[in-house]
Amino acid sequence: MTTPTITARNEPHAPAGRSRGNRRQSLLAILCAIALAVALVPHATDLVSGNTFSTALVLTCPVALAALGGVWAERAGVVNIGLEGTMILGTWGAGFGALQWGPALGLVFGMACGALGGLVHAVVTVTFKVDHIVAGVAINILAPGVAKYLSSLTFAAMPGGGTTQSPPVPALPVLPLPFGLGGLSTGIVLGLVLFPLSWWLLWRTPYGLRLRFCGENPVAATSLGIRVTVLRYGAVVSSGALAGLGGALLVLASSGLYRDGQTAGRGYMGLAATVFGNWTPSGAFAGSLLYGYMDALQLRGGGSAVRTVLVVAALVCGLLAVLVILRRGGLRRLAFPALAAILLATVTALTDSVPEQVAFVAPYVAVLVALVLSGQRLRPPAALGKRHDIASS
């Protein structure tokens, strides 16, 4: 009698060249749609104006730094839901530090407060093996109360301060930009530099390889002599420091003072950008830039600017539908872009301006929609959120 054998069947995969071609076509469709909108839609030039982009960078950087912090922690295998809480600690630290020692040390003290929040998260998750989600939610709940209590001890006794806000703080120096774009805070420039630096550390150094190995297979990493616990501690503390820096920039580069609730959910948007960016620094920045760009548009142009974005989205979907027809992609591929184009065109035809309430939530909706659309290509670290119980590591 012969024993039947089971042969593994490989699932078909789309060729890499075809995937790159689809991305190029999508990018070409977006650029063509923007060009058509600028040519045909009144006031659409705000979409590509230099002031819009400079404002978008200022609004992007705090969210992007929180997202970068998420990349550091989660590449090491630790889920960091507490980015919002560590950003809040960074805002208070920046306000207090700037009033006591000046804006530069305020930036450093904000990072230190965020790093302290990251250290608490590391102790709870890495040492005591508490569920990562529960620990992060606890930090998000505790941090606002801690910041308000510290404000009552420090800012309440200062002229112009209180338990919910600080007096005005000194601002960071501003670097002038070319082409009449104004200036950009040195803190924003520092934040932007951290992205290529993080990419180099995580993907081009032995340290980065070991850290990413901890997030993929900590048991195998331990068998090779890698100290998983030490690397995870360093990654989570660095994550908190980056999120704290993002919170500090809200104080020192945007508003000029500390306020209760200043983060306004930007830590959660940073977490969404981490996932949208497939746990890479460049992807995290791209997701954060989407939020910052939409936020800049709604601040500068309100509902009319958001309506213009919907016009661009309708043109993009229409062009993608045309590309599907030309490539004979079939009704299944045609359905989504065609229906989306019809729906968006109908909405924009019925109104000259999106309601202000809708415009306010547009940046959050844009990030969530992008996250849903990119869900099929995401690949988290294999050991993300899993316990590592080998004591010798």
UniProtKB/TrEMBL annotation:
<protein>
    <submittedName>
        <fullName>ABC transporter permease</fullName>
    </submittedName>
</protein>
<dbReference type="InterPro" id="IPR001851">
    <property type="entry name" value="ABC_transp_permease"/>
</dbReference>
<keyword id="KW-0472">Membrane</keyword>
<keyword id="KW-0812">Transmembrane</keyword>
<feature type="region of interest" description="Disordered">
    <location>
        <begin position="1"/>
        <end position="20"/>
    </location>
</feature>
<feature type="transmembrane region" description="Helical">
    <location>
        <begin position="333"/>
        <end position="351"/>
    </location>
</feature>
<keyword id="KW-1133">Transmembrane helix</keyword>
<feature type="transmembrane region" description="Helical">
    <location>
        <begin position="51"/>
        <end position="71"/>
    </location>
</feature>
<feature type="transmembrane region" description="Helical">
    <location>
        <begin position="241"/>
        <end position="258"/>
    </location>
</feature>
<feature type="transmembrane region" description="Helical">
    <location>
        <begin position="27"/>
        <end position="45"/>
    </location>
</feature>
<keyword id="KW-1003">Cell membrane</keyword>
<feature type="transmembrane region" description="Helical">
    <location>
        <begin position="78"/>
        <end position="99"/>
    </location>
</feature>
<feature type="transmembrane region" description="Helical">
    <location>
        <begin position="305"/>
        <end position="326"/>
    </location>
</feature>
<feature type="transmembrane region" description="Helical">
    <location>
        <begin position="357"/>
        <end position="378"/>
    </location>
</feature>
<feature type="transmembrane region" description="Helical">
    <location>
        <begin position="105"/>
        <end position="126"/>
    </location>
</feature>
<feature type="transmembrane region" description="Helical">
    <location>
        <begin position="133"/>
        <end position="157"/>
    </location>
</feature>
<feature type="transmembrane region" description="Helical">
    <location>
        <begin position="270"/>
        <end position="293"/>
    </location>
</feature>
<feature type="transmembrane region" description="Helical">
    <location>
        <begin position="177"/>
        <end position="202"/>
    </location>
</feature>
<dbReference type="Pfam" id="PF02653">
    <property type="entry name" value="BPD_transp_2"/>
</dbReference>
